[in-house]
Write a structure and sequence with these properties.
The complex is a heterotrimer. Chain A contains 12 helices and no strands. Chain A is mostly helical. Chain A has a domain at 67-232 and 254-281: MetI-like fold (Orthogonal Bundle). In chain A, helix 3 (68-99) packs parallel to helix 6. Chain B has 17 helices and 12 strands. Chain B has helices at residues 47-61, 74-86, 102-106, 113-119, 156-162, 173-185, 200-209, 230-247, 260-268, 280-288, 324-327, 330-343, 346-352, 371-381, 396-404, 406-410, 416-428, and strands at residues 33-37, 64-67, 92-96, 110-111, 143-144, 148-155, 189-191, 272-278, 296-298, 311-315, 318-323, 385-387. In chain B, 58% of the residues are buried. Chain C is mostly helical. Chain C has helices at 12-39, 60-67, 69-102, 107-115, 122-132, 139-146, 173-198, 202-210, 215-226, 228-244, 247-253, 265-275, 279-304; strands at residues 152-154, 160-162. In chain C, strands 1-2 form a two-stranded antiparallel ribbon. In chain C, strand 1 (152-154) and strand 2 (160-162) form a beta hairpin. The longest helix of chain C is centred in the N-terminal third of the chain and has 34 residues, at 69-102. Classes of the chains: A mainly alpha, B alpha/beta, C mainly alpha. Chains in contact: A-B, A-C, B-C. Chains A and C meet through helix 1, helix 3, helix 4, helix 5 and helix 6 of A and helix 1, helix 3, helix 4, helix 5 and helix 6 of C.
Amino acid sequence: MKKRVRPSVIFIYIVLIFWGLTTVYPFIWVLLNSFRKKGLILSDSFSIPAGKAFTLENYALAGERADFKNAYLNSFIISGSVTIGVMLLAGLAAYGMARYRFRGRNLLYSLTMAGMMIPVFSTIIPVFRLEVMMRIAGTGNRWLSLLATILPQVAGNLCFAMVILMNFIRSVPIELEESAFMDGASVFQIFFRIIIPTAKSSFATVAIFSFLWSYNDLFTQSFFLRYPRDRAITGLLNEISSQAGVNYGLMAAAVVLVVIPVLVVYMFLQKNIMRGLTAGAVKG
Amino acid sequence: MKKTKKAIALSLTAAIGLSAAGAVMAGAADPVTLSVVTSYGGDDGNRRNFEQAVQEYEDKTGNTVEDGSATSDEEWKAKVLTDYETGSEPDVLFFFSNADADPIIDAGKVVSIEEIRETYPDYATNMKEAMLAAASDGKHYAVPSSGFWENLFVNKTVLEDCGVDMPGTNYTWDQFLEDCQTIKDAGYTPIACSLFEVPHYWFEFCVMNNGSLDSQLTLPAVEADGSLDEAGQKWAAALNDMKELYDRGFFPENTTTATDAETVQLFGDGDAAFLIDGSWKVGYFTENYPDNLEDYAVAYVPAKGDRKATDAIGGISMGYFISRKAYDDPARQKAAVDFVEYLTSDDVLSRFVTTEVTALVNGAKPADLNSLQQSAAEANANLTGIVGAVQDTISSEAKGDLFGNVVAVVTGSMTAEDAVKSAIRINGNPGAADEGATG
Amino acid sequence: MQPTSTIYKKKAPLLVFLIPAFAFLGVYLFYPFIQNVINTFLNIGGLGRSADGANTPFYMNYAELLRDPKLRTALKNTLLLTLCTVVFQVGIALVLALLVDSIHRGARIFRTIYFFPIVISATALGLMFNLIFLYKGGMVNQMLFSLGKLHTETRASGRMVVDWIDWKDKDHFMTTMFLPVIWQYVGFYFVILMTGLSNISEDVFESASLDGAGGWQKVRYITLPLLRNTLCTCLVLAVTGALKVFDLPWVMFGAGMPEDRGWLTGTYMYDQTFNKANIDYGSTIAVLIVVLGVVLSNVSKALFRQTDDY
């Protein structure tokens, strides 16, 4: 095989770096401006805020207006529970759907696909009334309010998770399961000892997406988490930005505070996201 | 009418972080937690005053207040009403005392002032009886808080720069159009207004300009032959006046896409000359533009026809309700009554008020007015008449439809008459904003 | 289709696998949605109110769907967005994936930063893009101004007037609305396509090189055909994803801005339900969205003839 150095390589890097800049630069711009003195953003937003232009005021104001620590805690309780719930329910169902042949299977599959299309705002009012009837929502109890948010979010993420996991489990060679079965393992043992370890990366994907979507889902939160004590982080961002009006520095600071934890999680877990997502979505 | 602010997209709730600590006074009854929902959230000018008053109440009584305050908009109203219907209502609600409150009053979800006075004879006795909002059953439910006025704010610096005189008590529409042209030619924006988000201030005054103070609250109707009646034509003429302002380029370049905050900023920063807004903006400017306060003043909305420039919009549209659920709970009854009494006491209300109307028998006694507040007080002293906003007497669906169509009218894709007819139809037929639902 | 293994002949455990998830979906997704379908035939005048009886005629809302000009705008925009998503989102992702696949250094860094926008909430992104496209002093307008691309004029009063570009007006809103949506998810398809590429065996390329195939020919005759299934997955995901787009345009544009030209099915449904208190009509639009989603995803599957054993 002859190897030749293509002159176009430099061009390729230019294109790739250009796209990279479009994804990264806006965040850097927001980050820089979160440290800029009020009023300067509109006239000079590109320079690095140093000297007189530098300020921590925006963060101080954000901290004064809202209890970030409590909101982070609420967010992690909600999104953590949603993640666990989705993985468990979707894992079991995906396994059943992928391996068993039974009547109504096509119907259930269609229902799952249709479930992915149902917009959350068309279900929220009945869900709200249902939960009030079940004495979960609107009780004024913090933990029940969090639960009231968790349950519909689990349902909202379930269909996507099932599709990803189903696709993956179908691509796992059945021989592994058969040999385990020969050794006397029950289907439940097969699920926990073979399917879950094999599909680890797909489960990781489902976990990460469930977590992120739950963390970022303002709409459901805003229905069930009314009082400051219950509020999760995205609701807090919304609250601060609606108070900010044209205080763009404060808005930038709030965006940074909300994005940073996600960024940290992403940096640590990005390998899993990539691997699992592609394993599930790409067949064969 | 309270400012209807769309704020941010999905904004459904908003509230204020409050430290829940309150010193327990010796000898007080068992402290209780009181849930309170008000519209003093978001960027409301009285947010800080409200928070401070709540803190004082907590310190005084040892009770804890769970504050679910938010920015008032249609979503917020819908959510509050849903809470009452599903039984997850707050103990005390600060809400509109007009037709918006009918659902909760009709369902017996809130307690009347008369009933509360059977046990607490002094409840709301510091208010003028005549100014309490009467419900359809003739009873009174809401204890009024501070009222509001709407008037013309001017940026004096911009006017000086353009050589335009400060509008006086006899400011005419023709003079106003001339001034706008001068201001525009000098490179400033004449009128700070987002027709996309808050066209209703201009609409209300333009309606009065085409009618009079006395006929302001007459609702329009469609005649048998399909044409608009007198009030309807007045509304259409009002929309056409706004269209003229738009066509002549007196609104900001991006008035059909800007947010309210953006256009108010034009005024605040000295890029725009005029702004019609409410009394809450006095507090807003005081908080957000403390260094520029000297630039602003309150003047009079230019008049034509029978309206005098000193006729303005105002009144009291909101008040405190106590929920039946809290009142029937012996543990929370007194706490709720105390809360409303404290928040509507002469002392506390005077802090909420700089120049607004109150229902207080003794009147409010605001202290230490700044220059803008002083200017507002002077303008108020010159007012010859004040009337409620007609838009508050139509259903929120009709209101949403009408103001949603303002941009279509000014840009010429819909006639003013059609916009008014559409609003009339929806107002007469709540819940069915559909084409051809009923003639 | 795989033949059913003997392990899975006994169906009893199936109940344990399926019931929890589907019971959950039933209560929290399907029951509320059926309620929503019922609502389309009723007259409901407010979120907090119960129905004031049935509509007359009962199909009134569906008839309205056909007449409503704003809905027509919303449908047109949504379908256009779907098309743009398919062409640009998947297209850009494909180009980037092919380019990254051809280089030897830095592939991992590119993958990390390309995927990054996906993890950020739409609320945060919406606020960010609002700052970027702000009329007076936004990032784009500031940039154009400092490059001298904006028309300026000094008035007699000595005041300089700048013709800022209103990125949300009727001449620009399509770009301003579509760009962030497309931009955010390019990384998603990029990563999927990258994996598809890495699954293509090196041997294929080597033998092609021996046959004298150049770079473009290899892409055209080897990579693309072998990538077909992956591309199909991307296209189906892109079509269904575009139909659901809601929060980013809503944060940036709100109700139909500009001049009722900017509606999407999602934003129009939300506005009817929560701002116009037209609950039953909002519910009807929601039904339309779901039906459209099911139909379009099936159509796109059939069109791209994805091999699928369902």
